[in-house]
Amino acid sequence: MSSGSTVADKTFVLPGASVRMTDCTYCGSPVEDHDPLYVSESPDGEPTGQFCNYGCLSAHIDDEGLTTGTACEWSSSQ
Ligand SMILES: [Zn+2]
Question: Which among 9, 19, 48, 69 is least surrounded, fewest beta carbons within 10 Å?
């Protein structure tokens, strides 16, 4: 599989090795205590969110309605 798998429309999972962000976008826990992953609106872009694991990512996508394809962008500060 490639490293830029699409999670939702215009959302990509980034390799997390070079990224240092601390709090889960969804639940606010320190992501590095878990199995962190990072997402962006483009494969080479700056990360717009980070999550403990795929559970938090999936829950966030559900909450934001990203699977419907109607959301063009999100705010990681909400
Ligand atoms: Zn979380």
Answer: 69
Residues with CB in 5 Å of ion ligand 1: 24, 26-27, 29, 52, 56
Question: What is the full DSSP assignment across 8-26?
Answer: ETTEEEEP-TT----B-TT
18 alpha carbon – ligand 1 mean position (Å): 19
Give residue 10's region: left, alpha or beta (phi > 0; psi -120 to 50): left
pTM: 0.59
Summarised one tens digit per residue, pLDDT across range 27-59 is: 999 988 888 888 888 888 888 888 999 999 999
